[in-house]
Amino acid sequence: MTRRLPILGVLAAGVVAGLLFAPLFGTSAVLWPMLAVAVVAYLVEEGILRRPQLARWRVPLTLVGGVVALLAVIPGAARRPVSLWDAVTSGWRRTLESTWPATPSPDLVAFVPVLVLLACLVGARVLQRSRLLALLPAVVVAGLSQAYVTVTGLDAVLVGLALTGCFALVLVQWPSERAAWVRLVAALAAMAVGASTLGLALPTSTAAHLAKPSPPDSPTVLSNPLTEIAARLHSPDTVVFTARADGPVDRWPVIALDNFDGVTWTAAPKFQRLGRELPLDSHVTVPVRRQSADVALADWSLPWLPSQTRTLSVVDDLPLLVDPASGALLAEQKRPSQYRVTWAEPTVDSDQLASSGVDADPSSGADLGEVPVGIDDLARSIAGDVRPSFQLALVLEKYLRTNYKLATGENLPTGHGYPQLNHFLLRSKRGTSEQFAASYVVMARLLGLPARLVVGFKQPDTPSPDGTYVIRNRDVLAWPEVAVTGVGWVPLDPTGTATSKAGGGLAGAAETVRKQLPSKKEIEREHRSEPTLPAPEDPQTAHHWPGWMALVVVVAALGAMVLLWIIGVPLAKAVRRRRRRRHGTLGAWAEARDLLRDHGMRVTPAATARDLARDSDGPVSQAMTLLAGCLDRALWSGQDSDPDREFAWSAVRKAQRGLAEGRLSERIRTTLSARSLIG
After folding, report:
1. Of 174, 206, 278, 430, whose CB is crowded by the most CB atoms within 10 A?
2. Where is the Transglutaminase-like domain (predicted)?
3. Helix or strand (DSSP H, E) at 257
4. pTM for the complete prediction?
5. Domain layout of the chain by residue ranges
């Protein structure tokens, strides 16, 4: 069994290192393929142990067996074996271009078990020459995983502990007697408890990762749906898409625009390949429920795909691109005819929403260019003494609803730059949702509200007989969204036409708050009476430990433990030797026993000096024979003095010189061995 433990350690180290890729695809997607190739590698090594002549076939047997195992274990790989080659040559790069967890397709996920297969093969081969170098392939795999996503905090400690256990299987000379096994297990258990305690004491943070590049074929120039609103309203009956959802839906966004230079609203999407599921926005802390809808496209001129603000996943046979910041969806190559989208809908009651503040860290731009004086003065007059809050967002919305008119029919106004907004707000007071939404977002940002402009479609009030909603050009809409603390982006409706009669959802909660909104004077009076909240702590000056600092602490702690071991073990032995010299010959006998134990010799409690002399050879046997005579005279002579004490200690030194004639590595291991100190 001791011959197989190093092999198991090398294979286990490769699997543990490969598990560091789990955040990319999910644990189950990488675990089973890696276990499959590890089992193949072990079976090959077991065959070589039984029949050494098979060693020349180690490489082909391991590679062929590993490929067959991957084709059998990875779903879909057997139907397209060339996907394994695609994964090796380009899967690593396309995984970096995808959201995580990525779709575990064979042409992506297979590069991880292939890396583990190579690490197991090379490690098992090198193990015949050097145990230490046999661990290098697993270390390389672990290093490659950290180029994708870096583990921090407790996860880093647990991974380090697991790798340490694997390394111990390879490097430690395993004992054969039962007592030594008990002491070894106790030492490993103490190390595990200490490492776990250290990990719990360390601060945790979001794992760091490399900046994700956009796919090379992602589009760079796309039409702006905001500029197409008036044109779509001129052909109102054209069907754009149909949707059938399992819950109430208020509107269907296609893109969020958050950059404004005074002339044009734009977005700077950073597209990535859509993986298996998108993470929920970290700004959303309220409970959410999952909703799904089936969408079928009819208007192929629309470049963007209708979705929802907090999209989680999209089920479709064709690859899609997504901008994780805005949730905008785009076909990578061919547009799908239909797809199923799943999103997270916050569940918040109207009272909680009414008392909520605005998010201080939204993902929206703040630069508005050179704002006309008239627009700035209008925004200040609307807000009065109302502090930035969701109530202020509704006050601004109510002002636009009350004092401005939605344009219909022919001669619809177009444009959303400052000249058009200035004319809309201060002169005509008539516009489409394009002018309403753009004006709202500009004034909201002037008042300290984090806001962005969204273009999409409102859902009709009445579905078809089969429950499907038909969305047409007449339903095109632009609306503002405000970032609310704990809720995320909340859609508003300054035109008064977007809220669906179906109710429910976040828009339904906002409508309830809208109906219960006090007058502006009451809100001002309430805000004046409330104490001013202290300013939030600046995250740049707040004391926190970043992820890399936790890793530094772990490495420093491990380094301190190693240094303490290197210095402490020889120092403890020196102190023990000094104390034993006071006991003369008996102390020399105890020192000789511990010296032999540190060199790996089995020394039972009943063993005598002559027994150890017979089990040894050369200078060590001679020294034990001399020490046996000293012990006889010290124990049975009846003298109170100990005349042979110096002679006994000289025998110990002779045994030590005899044991030191071995290799340098053995002398170092003996010097640092704590076997005689722990039992």
Report:
1. 278
2. 425-496
3. strand 251-257
4. 0.69
5. 4-209, 225-528, 570-672
